[in-house]
Amino acid sequence: MTLLRQSLALSAMALRSLPQRLWPSLVIVMSMGCVVGVLLSMLSETAGLLRAYETGGDPSRAVVISANAFGTLSRNDVATILDAPGIARAGDGTPVADAEIQMWIPPTKGYTINSPELRGLGAAGLALRPGFRIVSGRPYRPGTQELIVGLKAQRAFGLKVGDRVILPNGEWPIVGAFSAAGGILEGQLAGDAETLLSASRISSFGSVLVQLQGPTAFDSFKRWLTGNPSLGVTAERQSDYDVRTANRFAAFFTKVAYAIGIVMALGALFGSVKILYATVSSRTREIGTLRALGYAPVSVAASVIAETVVLALAGSFVGAFLAWLLFSGRIIADNQNVFEATMTLRLLLLGVGWAAGIAILGSLAPAIRAARLSVSEALRTA
Amino acid sequence: MKLLPLVWTALWRKPGQTLLVCLAVTAAFTLFGLMSGLHATYRAMVDSARQDRLEVGQRFPIVTHGLRMPIAMREQIAHIPGVSAVGAYDVINGYYRDPHNHGQIMAVDKDMRTALSELPLSAAQWDALLATPTGVLVSEKRARQWHLGQGDTLPFVSQSIPRADGSSTWEFHVLAIVPDDPMRANGFILGNDEYVNHSRLPQDQGYVAQFRVAVADPAQANAISLKIDRGFANSGTPTISIPDKSNWENASRWGISAASIAWPVATAGLFMILLVTANAIAQSVRERIPEFAVLSTVGFRHSTLGALVVMEAAFPCLLGAAVGTALAGALTLWPASYLPADLRNVPKPTVSFLVLAWALGSAAVLALVSAALPVLRLKRLSVAEALAGP
Question: Is the pTM of this model over 0.90?
Answer without folding.
Answer: no
